[in-house]
Sequence to fold (273 residues):
Amino acid sequence: MEKAPETGIEESSSPNTSQDDHKQWIEAQDDLKRRLITEDDFSWKLSEQNEEEEKQEVLLRYVGGVDISFSKEDTSVACGTLVVLDIQSQDLRVVYHDYYLVTLTVPYVPGFLAFREAPVLLELLERMKKNASPFYPQVLMVDGNGILHPRGFGLACHLGVLADLPTIGIGKNLHHVDGLTYSGVRQLIETKENCTEDFITLSGCSGKIWGVAMRSTKGSLKPIFISVGHRVSLDAAITIVKMTCRYRVPEPTRQADIRSREYLRKHQTGMSE
DNA sequence: GCGACAG
DNA sequence: ATCTTGTCGC
Fold:
């Protein structure tokens, strides 16, 4: 391997894959971002209306959740899972679930999670739509961030735009952006004076509001990070998350997580079916 | 140059 | 993401 002169020119002769891929990925994100809608854009309602005349309105009932788990032995083997919960049932019953076992070749790169996971999740959504399931989700919770992202376009946005579906980003860890740090958020959350609610607004140094950190369970110091995905405002997102929070992680993504793990476990040892 | 970096 | 048992508590 001969080294090029130090003059700084190193182009097409040696494809610098990772750098080039990131550049293309950034372009793709910026391109898709033009179709992003960060306000409420759905026909269903979050709660009953008083007027009897309008009882034809559609209430939010089917909330979806997606997640991907990985095999411990084969880190490229993954199981994508889509679940749908009926939030009108008192027990948040799971009315639909589907799995997609795949081998992923795209690596995880912070800020580019969608290029690794979105194809799998999209397939699950398209499969469900093709089968004309009556439970197709009215809104989808994604295990990953929405606009809480270096370029304001995380996995939840990516998936929402491509599927043209309202989505909400649910992060279990903070992706440091715009001066936001995990320790800073923790301090803020532990300080009661800033807690008018059970969540705090994540406003960065620039003043932009990226989402909220919410203590979804009374006993949990560690918050979850909610951000706008697509076609759902932050306020609506918070409301919907609260409606589905039994534990720290809201049920849709929690069930997707649990079931994808279970699926992998059953299909790496036993040979059922 | 060094650290940070969703899942 | 994954490696991992018990354990403190409602």
Notes: The CA atoms of residues 150 and 177 of chain A lie 6 Å apart. The longest strand of chain A covers residues 93-103.
